[in-house]
Design goal:
Blueprint: H1 5-66, E1 75-77, E2 84-86, H2 89-109
Antiparallel strand pairs: 1-2
Length: about 110
């Protein structure tokens, strides 16, 4: 069979177009696959964070049940309504010593 030159050129153009569309679909399907994979990874990560948060909350609840908080909190509210007053360790130590001294005075006074 005898093939003309223009038929070869037309065949090459069609072949180039087919290759071009195949690469587009492969690239787009690869991008879709990659996107779906990333979404799945993000879902798994979020689920892991949820489980970790629930476990932390459960552990914290158990801890607070076994170890109740002190009567005097570290943070006290001011009268001004500006916010909480955070005591430094030296201030906490001074308060503790003052309370111990008051307790000794109360014991000796009884």
């Amino acid at each position: 069979m005898f093939v003309l030159g223009w038929e070869i050129d037309l065949f090459n153009e069609v072949l180039d177009l087919v290759i071009y569309f195949l690469t587009l679909t492969c690239v787009s399907s690869f991008c879709v696959f990659r996107f779906e994979r990333e979404v799945q990874l993000m879902k798994n990560l979020l689920e892991g964070y949820r489980k970790a948060l629930k476990a932390t909350q459960k552990t914290f609840a158990e801890h607070t049940a076994h170890c109740p908080q002190a009567v005097e909190p570290f943070c006290r509210d001011r009268c001004f309504g500006i916010g909480g007053l955070v005591l430094s360790t030296t201030e906490l130590e001074k308060l503790r010593l003052k309370q111990e001294e008051e307790e000794r005075m109360n014991k000796t006074g009884d």
